[in-house]
Every structure is written in structure tokens, then in C-alpha cells.
Amino acid sequence: MPPLISLRPGEDNASQAPRQESVRRTGAGIVIVDYGMGNLRSVQKAFEAAGAAARVTDSAREIRQAEKIVVPGVGAFSHAMKELQKRKLVGVLKEKIADGTPYLGLCLGLQILFAGSEEGPKTRGLGVVGGCVVRFRGKLKVPHMGWNTLDFKKDSPLTRGLKSGGFFYFVHSYYAVPEDAKDVLATTRYGINFCSALQKGNIFATQFHPEKSQSAGLALIRNFLK
Length: 226
Fold this sequence. Notes:
7 helices; two-stranded antiparallel ribbon; eight-stranded mixed beta sheet; globular; Rossmann fold
């Protein structure tokens, strides 16, 4: 199991320089949505390490102009939606998703894609993926925290070059249950097999943290940038 380390801009540059230069030329249109929740700088640094100059913003105008959108998040479902509503970003995100703009949700950024969560039963999410978000049950230690593996269920441009069995880093107490099994990109075993990544058209999302997942996480980010 790999140790947890910080990612630094320029890491792996010697082996990835040609590919990163190609990505860097397309990085200007990538925005990381700031709604007051999440490890924004860590995510931005991971994109920099992958070769892209992603911009952190809470501006609806800049998000509307973006070529690709990244929505990270750490915290509670209801609080996340409240902060998005306060910044008038709910409609903007739904509009961009409907227009076909590639969306990458990380951790809470995956969960808010659903209409609701047990974490905030009175709060409505974006509702762009059918299903719900539920809490781990039974005698499992919660949160599920640390390294765990993925089992890929279908091919996706997001996971090109990655294989089942690779380790990624998780910190969460809730998980998504997509209504349509075809939306499940990967599952992970933690007492049960839960959806740890999904793809529905231009919507990509991971329950794990690519920015904390070393080389495998950087490979996934590079795939999103292509």
C-alpha cells in the first residue's frame, strides 16, 4: 500500500514532460469551483503537477466560460448545497453539465450530483444523476479513511491506462448508489461493494481523492485534461 505524500508542482516532469506540455496548452479553460468547502489548493497543485494551470473561482461568469469544470469538496452535503446556492452557482453548474461541458466531481463533488443524501434529507442536490447518497451501516469504522482499491466496471477516457487493483485515497462516511448501474465506473470494497467512481456522459466523479492518490491520481487527472 503506497504511503500518503504531498504532490508538488513539477513532480514526474522528467518522464512526463512531452505529455504535460501538451496538456498545459489546453489548461486555461479549466476552473476549480470555490464554494467555501474543500482542499482547493491541494487540488490546484495536483493539476499543476499534471501540467495544467487550473483557475480557482467562485465567479459564475468564469464558470460559464470554462472548457472543463472541477468540483472538489470536503464536508456535509447540506452545507455544500447551501454554499452553492448562496453563490448562485447551482443553476450555472446544471447549465454547464447540460451543455456537455466535462465535469469532474471529487468526493463531495460526486455526492452533490444526486438529488438527495441521508446526510441532509431536507436538502436537494443537483439531481443530474439518478439515485441517492447513503451512510455506511453496520459495524464498519466510519469514516472510511485510507488507501483502498478500485474495480473498474467499464471503459472510460477518465481511467485510460489504469487497471483494477490500483490504490486510491479515501476519506468519507457516505457513498452514492446510482439508480442506473451503467453509471458506475468503479466499485470499492468496504464491508460492501460501493460506487467509488461514476461516469454519465460528460459527468465524471470519484469518491476518492485523486489529488492525494500519487501517480495513479495524477494519471486520472491527466486523462481528464485530454
